[in-house]
Write a structure and sequence with these properties.
Largest sheet: 3 strands, mixed
Distance between the termini: 104 Å
Number of strands: 9
Shape: extended
Keywords: Nucleus
Helix content: 55-70%
Family: Belongs to the MYBBP1A family.
Structural class: mainly alpha
Radius of gyration: 51 Å
Main location: nucleus
Protein name: MYB binding protein 1a
Subcellular location: Nucleus
Length: 1402
């Protein structure tokens, strides 16, 4: 391939040179005719990925099928043949496979020509020495390609040439080793017998030494022996491979074959063929004994041993029952057992999985022969190491046994348990066990105990395996066997109890009965949990536990034949009888309480069976459980006269919770399951006190201080197994333990050095000084001067002192280990108690008690994350976190009725957020923050739930919701103003503190779950100066644009708000929109507002319809405030005449309901002046103002303001204008403004966000017939006008002359009524100030609403300098505006004063 690649690269060079020289470019390979796609196939074929290679090969074949006669076929063959000899070893098989697929697809290509091209391309005679190895492999892979195509065995000429080439390649053993000979054997195994007879003399020498010289020659001989025995006999004569002189040579050949497949880990074909030949010639015993066990096994060569193991597994289907007995009781099976025992280190090769596959395949293949199945399973079980079988108790191959074989296997196990036959076992001892001098390790009692222990666990695992086909009689037999021998013994056999007729050859020890007892409760758990679907039910419809209780009751009644190991006392027997009576009562329950009764039945059955294991404790529990059951099911418990009724008696659910906690303290998985089942039925009746009992266990401080309340018990079975495992490890791995022992000694020395205290030093010095004084010498003398008696006394004192110190150190170690063990048991107990918490949050997520779990679970998480060093701490942490996150915070259901705990939840939210900000680890802080979000969700859910009832109450009372203040009106309502400061302060802490534990995903989760909260926080955050300084101008503009886009998308996706939460979300979004508009206009940002305007205009019709709906007034005002910023004025609403008299048919009650929310007529102020008097007063200000000289001064200013009354806009509604067909001239009484003053006013109006209008500039109005001002409008005094003018200035309005003309397209609009009252200058001034504070621009009374013109004039990218007006009431707006931007108000006030001063100058 290297040559090919070099040629492909060199071709363009020669083409370019030929073109320059003027000659015609040459293309000997035809590369220019091929596409790039076709050439890429060959690159993909050599890639290491198998999928890529196969895909490239398929595409190449498809490409060539469309052009079978083109130049592509020739190029493909040449390219693939060249690729057989590339330098990359991984690419050669790829090209060989592609060539084989090509030859298989195109059968018209002759194989001889391909073989000739291969030999010509990779000629072994002409190739250089450095290229000899690639050429050899190219020829080999070329022949393999012809063979893999499937056509070689049909073409005799190509076959003979290939055989000849392989024989030539076999001479280069240094490069190819045995691969050519192996390829020859593979090819000849596929050829017909006639062809083999023809080829055999050419490939096989008539020499036995050559046949036994290599595994390949021997395999070729065995192939000929199998296919053409007559031709082979003619060629070599009669040959006996299993003769005495040939057996050593066979062992050598098999050893060579084992070494050749060492890396592949497979059985050589020659070994299996040799086994078949031995079976065929009836020489299998000789072959197995001399070749396998005495030949290969004695080599002490592990590949040879593995070959023997594989040969054993492959021989199982070929052997008869007698031959199986021979194979399974020899030296090979012992060595296999020793391998299973000693191969325990991770880096050691373990043959057990491979042998399990062999045995499983054998059992599957002979299901119709149960005798052979039973023989193999019993044979492997009989391989024991000092009585303990080497196969595991959970050996899964038994699931392939047929029903008769399984029944026979269980019977063999039972008989071996009762009467152990150690002679029938294939027992062995490891080298370390043989070196042990302890006689107790070699006694039959130990072997019997180990065997019985394994057998009982094996019986339980057979029932436990769901894949094993077993009958109900077999399950009952195993369960009765375990229960009887765990708690009873036979006094006199009886046919009624078959277990009494079973005799022991070795007495059953007490420790063996403990093992059987533990196995029985493990079996009970299996029967209670595994058969839950078909259930734990027997044929008569009763649970297995109930059936075993009946069996126990029968045993108790046969006291003559059977005796309990621990006899019942009279109270215990009474408790047993009451339990049976309670079971009958539970069975008689109706179907409504059937599930609850079943759970209680399971609990009482389990505790009743535990009477045989721990009678005293179970007897007390039974009485309490029966009392709780009767109370929970609605029955009144019968009390004797001696027992008085205790008014302080705790509720039954608390007693039952204490019982469940006591059961969870036991190391029984079955107890754990039963406790979960019972608690799932009683958790709906849970009281705060009962929940506190559970939380006290989970509280680390209380659980450490109150350990005496619940005693956590350890499992004796585990201790026993640990002792056995330690003894086995000490026997099998002595060398490794010696090293560990030395390490332990070093650590003990370090501990001793660390444990030496000052008291021990003083005692040691005192002993040494006493010894020297006893010798009568000074301390400066040498030790040699001490006498023998003094030295002996000193040694004795030192020995006793160090012995005491050693005992003290050991006592401290024991105490430390005891505390550590108690801590581990306590953690296990807490993990089991968490099951009850999980059941509560899963079954009763809407229970208000669930809210009490937040902080205890958070305390466990926080504590465990700090001290999660051990596995149990990590398990406790993981389980608590899983319950908290998945079952609590992310649950679809939550509490919807918190009752009077609403205020407590607000404070709890604040406390959780504060604790989240005070944590040292952000991962812990995340849990606290999620807990606050969960409570926020609960609060919102309660507000939505309570809003329905609140709305109904309002409708019944006939009250208008707009007259009521917003906020938390009832305990069930959700007050957003109480929650917003909490998260706002947390966000400020996150943004200001460097090492804040709060993270961005926390707030993203808050905003995604509660968009209204995000809108309120942004409203408070965006106007802050500190935030603005953090951004450059382009970044700030981009941020504002992104927020606008998000708010727009939020409003678009929200649609029509239905629920209260959706209405709150819409309200917050529109408020944030106004804040954004204010920011855009104040900073002259270039932002596209087209999308926002479209979304707002789509809501116009719905808002107009629901303007008077409950609670929609504020939203309506905010909407029109935003629309006014976009240039759309709020349409005028038609007001009804005040003097309109209701019809006589309407009753006063109906009038009140119709005019809901307005003052009644009796509450309105009486009119003091008549209509004519008011009209006369209305003309006085105009006359007075016309006679005033143009002078400066305060009175003059007030009069000038009185001449220009401006009606302030309230909530964006323009004042009523009076359009005229022709613009009137300026009144002579109107003081003319100087150009300088007009310019100042124009600038001031631009600052306020309004477009200045000239006093003489007409304003166009699209309305054809604007309504005239009502004739009943009363004239206002100048003082009132002055007040309103000041109020309009405070609100942010720019006064415009009242005499400004307004153009109208209407031909004859009605003129302004002469009775229109004039406002006093003082009232006008007040209104003008108020309008400036509210952010509105006052318009003259004659200026019409200019809606369409504003919409047309508004560009897509709007630049404005005026912030939108606030939506709060006027007092609140004034305060908030003054607090947010006081400099703006001060600068505006100063500018107005300067303008007025300049206006007074002549």
């Amino acid at each position: 391939m290297a040559e090919m690649e070099s040629r492909d690269v060199a071709e363009p060079m020669s083409l370019g040179e030929a073109t320059k020289s003027g000659a015609r470019p040459a293309d000997p390979h035809g590369l220019l005719k091929h596409s790039r796609e076709f050439l890429d196939f060959f690159w993909d074929i050599a890639k290491p990925q198998q999928e890529t290679r196969l895909e490239a090969t398929e595409k190449l074949l498809e490409y060539l099928r469309t052009r079978p006669q083109g130049s592509e076929m020739k190029y493909a063959l040449k390219r693939l043949i060249t690729g057989l000899g590339v330098g990359r070893e991984t690419a050669r098989p790829c090209y060989s496979l592609a060539l084989a697929q090509l030859l298989q697809s195109f059968e018209d290509i002759p194989l001889c020509s391909i073989l000739q091209q291969i030999q010509e391309k990779h000629d072994l005679q002409k190739v250089k020495k450095t290229m000899m190895r690639p050429a050899l492999f190219a020829n080999l892979f070329g022949v393999l390609a012809l063979f893999q195509s499937g056509r070689l065995v049909k073409d005799s000429e190509a076959l003979m040439k290939s055989v000849k080439l392989l024989q030539t390649l076999a001479q280069y053993y240094n490069h190819l080793q045995e691969q050519p000979q192996q390829a020859l054997v593979d090819i000849l195994s596929e050829v017909p017998e006639a062809t083999l007879q023809e080829v055999l003399p050419k490939v096989l020498r008539a020499d036995l030494n050559s046949v036994l010289g290599s595994p390949e020659h021997l395999q070729l001989f065995l192939l000929a022996q199998q296919k053409v025995p007559t031709e082979l006999e003619k060629l070599m004569g009669s040959v006996n491979l299993f003769s005495d002189e040939n057996i050593p040579r066979l062992v050598t050949v098999l050893k060579m074959a084992a070494a050749s497949v060492k890396k592949e880990r497979r059985l050589p074909t020659v070994a299996l063929d040799l086994l078949r030949l031995a079976l065929q010639e009836d020489k299998f015993p000789r072959f197995w004994k001399e070749v396998v066990e005495q030949g290969l096994l004695k080599k002490h060569f592990w590949p040879a041993s593995y070959l023997c193991f594989r040969l054993l597994g492959a021989a199982l289907p070929l052997l008869s029952k007698e031959q199986l007995q021979l194979v399974m009781r020899g030296d090979l099976i012992r060595q296999y057992g020793e391998h299973l025992v000693t191969a325990k280190f991770p880096n050691q090769f373990k043959f057990a999985p491979e042998m399990n596959e062999y045995v499983g395949a054998f059992l599957e293949g002979c299901r119709d022969d149960p005798e052979r199945q039973l023989a193999v399973v019993v044979a492997f079980t009989s391989i024991t190491n000092q009585g303990l079988p080497v196969v595991p108790t959970f050996w899964r191959v038994v699931q392939s046994l047929s029903a008769p074989a399984l029944k026979g296997y269980v019977a063999w196990l039972r008989d071996m348990f009762l009467q152990p036959d150690l002679e029938s076992l294939v027992d062995f001892s490891t080298n370390n066990q043989k070196k042990a001098q302890d006689a107790s390790l070699h006694g039959p009692e130990r072997a019997v105990f180990r065997l019985r222990k394994w057998i009982i666990l094996r019986l339980v695992s057979i029932v436990d395996n769901v894949h094993v086909e077993k009958e109900e009689a077999l399950i009952e037999e195993v369960a009765r066997f375990c229960f009887f021998h765990a708690f009873f013994e036979t006094k006199k056999p009886t046919p009624q109890i078959p277990e009494t007729e079973q005799r022991f050859s070795f007495p059953l020890e007490s420790r063996a009965r403990e093992v059987v007892s533990g196995a029985f409760f493990s079996l009970l758990q299996t029967l209670s949990t595994q058969f839950r679907q078909a259930p734990e039910q027997t044929r008569d419809g009763q649970p297995w536990t109930y059936r075993l209780v009946q069996f126990a009751d029968m045993l108790l009644n046969h006291s003559r034949n059977v005796a309990a190991l621990t006899p019942f006392t009279p109270p215990q027997r009474q408790a047993w009888d009451r339990m049976l009576q309670t079971l009958k009562e539970l069975e008689a329950r109706s179907s409504e309480a059937k599930a609850k009764a079943a759970a209680f039945q399971h609990l009482i059955l389990l505790v009743g069976i535990h009477l045989f294991k721990s009678p005293a404790e179970s007897c007390d529990l039974l009485g309490d459980i029966q009392t709780c059951i009767k109370k929970s099911l609605g029955e009144k418990t019968r009390r004797t006269r001696s027992k008085a009724v205790n008014p302080q008696e705790p509720p039954w659910v608390e007693v039952l919770v204490e019982i469940l906690l006591a059961l969870l303290a036991q190391p029984s998985h079955l107890m754990r399951q039963v406790a979960r089942s019972v608690f799932s039925h009683i958790c709906s009746h849970l009281t705060p006190r009962a929940l506190q009992l559970i939380l006290d266990v989970l509280n680390p401080e209380k659980s450490q201080d109150e350990d005496d309340n619940v005693v956590v018990m350890d499992d004796s079975e585990k201790q026993l197994e640990n002792v056995e495992d330690k003894s086995e490890d000490s026997e099998d791995n002595k060398n490794s333990e010696d090293e560990e022992y030395s390490d332990e000694e070093e650590s003990d020395e370090e501990d001793r050095d660390g444990d030496v205290d000052q008291g021990f030093r003083e005692q040691l010095m005192a002993v040494l000084q006493a010894g020297k004084a006893l010798g009568g010498v000074d301390s400066e003398d040498d030790d040699e001067e001490l006498g023998d008696e003094a030295m002996m006394a000193l040694d004795q004192n030192l020995a006793s002192l160090f012995a005491e110190q050693k005992l003290r150190i050991q006592a401290r170690k024991d105490e430390k280990n005891k505390l550590q063990k108690e801590k581990m048991l306590r953690r296990d107990f807490q993990i089991r108690v968490l099951d009850l918490i999980e059941v509560l949050v899963t079954k009763q997520p809407e229970n208000p008690l669930v809210l009490e779990l937040l902080e205890p679970l958070l305390n466990i998480i926080r504590r465990s994350m700090r001290t999660s060093s051990t596995k149990q701490e990590q398990d406790l942490l993981h389980k608590t976190a899983r319950i908290f996150t998945h079952h609590l915070c992310r649950s679809r259901h939550y509490c919807h009725d918190v009752g009077n705990y609403m205020e407590t939840l607000y404070s709890q939210v604040e406390r959780l957020v504060q604790q989240a900000g005070h944590q040292a680890d952000s991962s812990i802080s995340l849990y606290y923050f999620n807990a606050s979000l969960y409570l926020l969700r609960v609060l919102k859910g309660n507000s939505a739930h309570g809003s329905v009832h609140k709305t109904q109450r309002k409708e019944e009372a006939g009250l208008d919701a707009s007259t009521k203040p917003r906020g938390p009106e009832a305990p069930s309502s959700f007050d957003l103003s109480l929650v917003t400061p909490i998260y706002s302060s947390a966000l400020s802490s996150f943004l200001t503190k460097r090492n804040s534990p709060l993270t961005v995903p926390m707030f993203l989760s808050l905003f995604s779950r509660h968009p209204a909260q995000a809108c309120l926080l942004l409203q408070k955050t965006l106007p802050t100066r500190e935030l603005r300084l953090c951004f450059e101008d382009p970044e700030w503009e981009q941020l504002i644009g992104q927020i606008l886009a998000k708010v727009t998308e939020n409003l678009r996706t929200l649609g029509e708000a239905q629920t209260k939460s959706e209405q709150q979300r819409e309200l917050s979004s529109v408020e944030l929109l106004n804040v954004l508009f204010r920011t855009v206009h104040q900073e002259n940002l270039t932002t596209d507002l087209t999308a926002v305007r479209g979304v707002l205009q789509s809501r116009q019709a719905r808002l107009q319809q629901g303007e008077r709906a409950t609670g929609s007034g504020r939203l309506h005002n905010l909407y029109w405030q935003a629309m006014k910023t976009l240039g759309v004025q709020r349409p005028k609403s038609e007001k009804k005449d005040v003097k309109e008299v209701p019809s006589a048919t309407q009753s006063p009650v109906s009038m009140k309901r119709k005019k809901k929310g307005f003052l009644p007529e009796t509450k309105k102020r009486k009119k003091r002046k008549s209509e004519g008097t008011m009209q006369q007063d209305a003309t006085k200000p105009a006359v007075t103002s016309g006679n005033q000289p143009p002078s400066t001064g305060r009175k003059r200013r007030n009069r000038v303001k009185a001449k220009f009354p401006a009606q302030s806009q309230v909530n964006g509604t323009p004042a009523t204008k009076s359009p005229a067909p022709d613009p009137p001239a300026t009144s002579p009484s109107t003081p003319a403004k100087t150009p300088k003053l007009q310019k100042k006013n124009r600038k001031l109006s631009q600052v306020n966000g309004a477009t200045p209008v000239s006093p003489t500039e007409p304003a166009k109005s699209p309305a054809p017939d604007p309504p005239a001002t009502s004739l009943s409008t009363h004239a206002k005094t100048p003082k009132l006008q002055k007040k309103k003018r000041k109020l309009s200035q405070v609100n942010g309005a720019t006064p415009v002359s009242p005499m400004e003309p307004a153009k109208s397209p209407a031909p004859d609009p009605p003129a302004t009524s002469p009775s229109t009252p004039a406002k006093t200058p003082k009232l006008q001034k007040k209104k003008r100030k108020l309008s400036q504070v509210n952010g509105a621009t006052p318009v003259t009374a004659t200026e019409p609403a200019n809606i369409e013109e504003h919409q047309k004039a508004l560009p897509k990218e709007c630049v404005s300098g005026k912030s939108p007006q606030s939506t709060l009431p006027r007092k609140k707006a004034r305060v908030s505006l003054a607090s947010r931007s006081p400099s703006l108000l001060q600068s505006g006030a100063k500018k107005k004063k300067v303008q007025l001063r300049k206006g007074r100058k002549p």
